[in-house]
Amino acid sequence: MTQPHIVWLRRDLRLADQPAFHAAAALGPVIPVYVLDDETPRHRRMGAASRWWLHHSLEALALELEAAGSRLILRRGKAAEVLATLAQETGAAAIHALRHVEPWWRMAEKELAKALDLRLYDGLYLMPPGSLRTGGGTPYKIFTPFKNALIDAIGEVDVLPAPRLSAPESWPASDKLDDWALLPTTPDWAGGFREAWTPGSAAAHARMEEFKDILAPYRQDRELPSIDGTSRLSPHLHFGEVSPRQLWHAIAGMGGQGPGFFKAELIWRDYAANLVLQFPDYGARSYREGYDEGLWRDPENDQAAAADLAAWQQGRTGYPIVDAGMRQLWHTGWMHNRVRMIAASFLVKHLLIDWRQGEQWFWDTLVDADYPSNATNWQWVSGTGVDSNMFVRIMAPLSQSEKFDAGAYIRQWVPELGKLSDPYVHDPESFRCRPRDYPAPVIGHKEGRERALAAYKAMKG
Ligand SMILES: Cc1cc2nc3c(=O)[nH]c(=O)nc-3n(C[C@H](O)[C@H](O)[C@H](O)COP(=O)(O)OP(=O)(O)OC[C@H]3O[C@@H](n4cnc5c(N)ncnc54)[C@H](O)[C@@H]3O)c2cc1C
């Protein structure tokens, strides 16, 4: 009997340019398995929006595998235990998987490697996390030198084709995807998700092709939430339906500034993984001293702060650009990057609420919720991280809204403001044209800014 090889899938749900599949397929019959594991990540269990995406992504991958003469085996439980059982049941020779940087996955990989032949490969990022080092031999903390080092090191990027898979003599039992109840039922809040997205590798590649046509003006257009100027590939990238190296490869040779700026964004994703590898609890605590001890208003013990947090979550702060973003997030599981920065800054500075509250909300509501990217961007916006950004740089949401021409975006997501033209729609309160059904600002810009700076000064003593 030829021993089969297990491929353990997590956020690498594709066949092409997936080194674990490739290596396993070269050695014998392949058993692809996805383990729904809420125990290993503990409080970091996948959020509701991600679970919606996961359901559809697994469905798409199962179809792709069937077309290739294979199957997707689904199991539920603690990954290390489930895989040990499956390896025993099937007499598997080894388990193949892509290396992940989330601290809980690194622990699971360690545990599994003690008991079984676990073979790990790089494939989630442009370059293996941890591989780029400063002249002094240490990992990078600051983005720009990291980016320059990656561009110097990456060379010509080749991608792997989908491997030919052979089936084991018998297939192990599999759970039914529907039994996992990953989709919302009562209420079914995913209508907007269904309109906005098609999960799966085929859709990711189709979007990539479409995006190539709008890549030339990406440098300017990516800043404008009212237009379709970014790739919207983030959930596909997060779940590994397309690899960043496939994207890099796809745009190699394209001229102009667009591709260069797009590559820089992909490098941010690698940078975030590089930080989380160095600082595994980057999503759990501020990396500058003092911030976690008394700077923030605490929604658990302060009713006004709790009300402000709820207004932010529901998109009812009275700041149109913030509310449009938070409602886009709620309805589609995604928010434009410029607006993510504005909404995050507003929570942390104007409302003086701990960035970890925002990070948790995003974790639950984003279809692209990604531990390294979410943590890194929240700490960056808040000025609490190891990079060079500072808390005292406070964004002005109303002028940002005008500067980045967000009028149409606001009218789309905040129907109460649908009849207001520019410039009124950016700041209906100051223009005295706020409709009755739209809330007054929870705090004035000047007042919020001064409160944040005073709290910062007090923290610094
Ligand atoms: C507070 C905050 C939280 C965020 N949380 C997440 C998150 O959980 N998951 C996530 O994927 N992105 C996160 N981002 C980064 C960014 O907003 C999204 O990656 C981007 O909006 C996705 O849209 P796109 O695919 O059209 O991006 P594009 O502009 O087309 O960029 C291409 C790809 O580059 C990567 N990328 C772009 N910007 C960043 C960035 N700043 N950091 C890391 N990767 C980046 C993404 O994978 C993206 O798909 C966050 C940003 C902020 C300010």
TrEMBL record:
Keyword Transmembrane helix included in the entry's annotation? no
Cofactor(s) recorded for this entry are: (6R)-5,10-methylene-5,6,7,8-tetrahydrofolate; FAD
Q: Which Gene3D superfamilies match?
A: 1.25.40.80, DNA Cyclobutane Dipyrimidine Photolyase, subunit A, domain 3, HUPs
In its UniProt record, a GO molecular function of this protein is: deoxyribodipyrimidine photo-lyase activity
Q: Which domain of life is it from?
A: Bacteria
Where is the chain membrane-spanning?
A: none
Q: Which family does it belong to?
A: Belongs to the DNA photolyase family.
What's the protein here called?
Cryptochrome/photolyase family protein
Organism in which the protein naturally occurs: Alteraurantiacibacter lauratis
